[in-house]
Write a structure and sequence with these properties.
single chain, about 180 residues, Rossmann fold, six-stranded mixed β-sheet, two-stranded antiparallel ribbon, about 40% helix, globular
């Protein structure tokens, strides 16, 4: 079993649930994917980091990866750690949902590892409509970084890819919902 197949098996086993759910977008759904259950599992984190790292490196000139806390924290950490294991100085950063309101009142954590204008990729766990992904891209752009792409673990195939690409960004995902539904545990 290759890394991608193994990650899909872990995602299906730990992160996929059927039932009735309300998503962040406000939409009702008959299934829910809590990718943190996969990305906080040791093997799941390692596989996610190694696969996303290779996807990041397929895009020329990327110097850093970031994402919105809390969902992207294990993604950013696993990709940066995997990069370091390969002697690659890829930096990481976290985007706050809102500035903390005290101290430096920052949107971006880890900015001392970044330089204005550097090429970055935003990492996401699950993309539905793309609204929160586009918000993360806008924050990073407003803070002076050149967002080139967004890479997700899973695309729910509910318009997020198209919304992100319509803004001129590259969109890649490891899986889409059909991969997950068709996979036999």
């Amino acid at each position: 079993m290759d890394d991608r197949d193994r990650l899909l098996a872990i995602l299906k086993s730990l992160s996929y649930e059927e039932g009735e759910f309300i998503l962040k977008s406000g939409k009702k759904s008959s299934f829910y994917i809590d990718a943190r259950e996969t990305t906080l599992n040791p093997e799941g984190m390692y596989l996610t980091g190694s696969i996303m790292y290779r996807m990041v490196r397929d895009i020329p000139r990327i110097q850093a990866v970031g994402g919105v806390s809390v969902g992207a924290d294990p993604l950013v950490c696993s990709v940066v750690l995997y990069a370091h294991s390969r002697q690659d100085n890829l930096s990481g950063f976290f985007i706050r949902k809102e500035p903390k309101g005290h101290g430096k009142n920052l949107w971006i954590e880890g900015a001392k590892n970044l330089t204005t204008g550097m090429d970055v990729v935003i990492l996401e766990d699950v993309v539905t409509t793309g609204g929160s992904s586009i918000r993360a891209i806008e924050i990073a752009q407003n803070e002076g970084y050149n967002v080139r792409a967004l890479i997700a673990i899973l695309d729910r195939l509910e318009g997020g890819k198209e919304a992100i690409e319509s803004k001129g960004y590259i969109f890649k995902s490891i899986f889409n919902i059909n991969d997950l539904r068709q996979h036999k545990v």
